[in-house]
Write a structure and sequence with these properties.
Layout lengths: L8 E5 L2 H8 L4 E8 L2 E6 L10 H27 L3 E7 L2 E6 L4 H7 L31 E6 L2 E11 L6 E11 L10 H9 L3
Antiparallel strand pairs: 1-3, 2-3, 4-5, 6-7, 7-8
Length: 198
């Protein structure tokens, strides 16, 4: 959630007269000399427009946390007990390691908690009953290497308007904190790193 109070006002100045003008203002905070022809001046913001509904964002996060805590403590823990390990949580997701004979059979018995509309229609677990309903889960593969560094694959359905056909495509959501985008663009890189294959 963006906090508009934390925005800064930076002026890049290459003119000594302008520099004196900005330094004399009461809103002057500090300056940084980049070279003999360019100086950056940071000014305190004189007015702030509070145009972000921070209360709404906070409420959405609270509802999400309550839903996730409810799912973990009242659905998953009673079902699996010590055979369940919570690997990590993110703002809107839980990732588990589950020791069970057949996870798909378990999911079929807990169908009301999962969005399986993106699964292959030939699978018995496939259902459109909870398609795109918030709070339902749909994922094919997950690889987590460390906190804030993971990749997951899910199917996304593209519905075409011209006819009733739809196209299913595989989508990867990749999260890597502190790594450039070009170095983290493929799910396969995560798989190779996890399995240590070249």
């Amino acid at each position: 959630m963006e906090n508009v109070r934390e925005r800064v006002d930076i002026k890049l100045i290459s003119n000594e007269e302008k520099l004196r003008k900005y330094v004399a203002k009461p809103s002057f905070k500090r300056f940084k000399i980049f070279n003999e022809h360019l100086i950056g001046v940071e000014m305190t913001r004189v007015s702030i427009e509070l145009n972000r509904p921070a209360y709404l964002g906070a409420q959405i996060l609270d509802i999400s946390k309550n839903l996730m805590a409810w799912f973990h403590h009242l659905v998953m823990k009673p079902k699996y007990g010590n055979n369940l390990e919570l690997l990590f949580t993110d703002t809107d997701s839980l990732c588990y390691e589950i020791a069970t004979d057949d996870i798909y059979e378990d999911m079929e018995n807990m169908r009301e908690y999962f969005d399986t509309s993106n699964y292959d229609e030939s699978l018995p677990i496939h259902s459109n009953n909870y398609k795109k309903i918030p709070g339902r889960i749909a994922m094919k593969e997950f690889i987590g290497l460390r906190p804030k560094m993971y990749s997951l694959i899910y199917n996304e359905v593209d519905h075409r308007d011209d006819n009733l056909e739809s196209e299913v495509r595989e989508v990867a959501k990749i999260t890597t904190k502190g790594i450039t985008k070009t170095a983290r663009d493929k799910h396969e890189h995560f798989r190779r790193c996890l399995l240590k294959t070249e």
